Amino acid sequence: EAIYATQKVDVNSEAMRAWAAFGFSPCETVEHHELPLDQFEPQLAPLYDRMRQKGKIPAAARIIPLFDADCSEVLRLHLATMGGDPMTLSQKLRGEVNGSFTPRLSRVLIIDERVAGFILGHLVSPEIAYVDANVVAPEVRGSWANVWLKLEATREAMRWGIKQFVFTSFDHYKDTRSFTDRMRGVTVRKSVLMYLPLVPAHVSDADSG
Questions:
Q1: Which of 82, 126, 133, 189 is spaced 20 to 30 A from 34 at the CA atom?
Q2: Whole-angstrom distance, CA of residue 63 vs CA of residue 173
């Protein structure tokens, strides 16, 4: 068991030092990234072409805009892989709230008529898109699906005049952070969740005896 800070704080900030003074320490780091799009086409397109030529991409696979997808299936995969609040996600998928996913910008991977991945995002300025979710189903993760989905989402974004993606990553998103470095992205901010482990009563009793 542990006590957690009420909110994340910036690394090396006064707030972090204040929590540390009470014995709290970081348990998770959130990194905030900016990623220019100019490296996607030269790096991913040749890789995608080789995969296509070698027949690695199933004939039944296609990528469609969010407005053509079954939002209930997108919601199902999101909840299964990333969690989240079903009501809030449903509203964002239907475009009913601020920060809703942009239907034409967001792309969905379909295999055998089932949702197998997606990149969901929304515009924050005429040239910047925030990537809310980048998900590939476990059965095709780390394969052609990741490459194709990223490439198609980027191509659509660039058609809109988007020049940069912004997004966050957590400690267990090692592939995301590695990809960001490879594509010459930058980490513009780091924040941490502070926590204080609670010593079990029987441990304290043993130490005192």
A1: 82
A2: 24
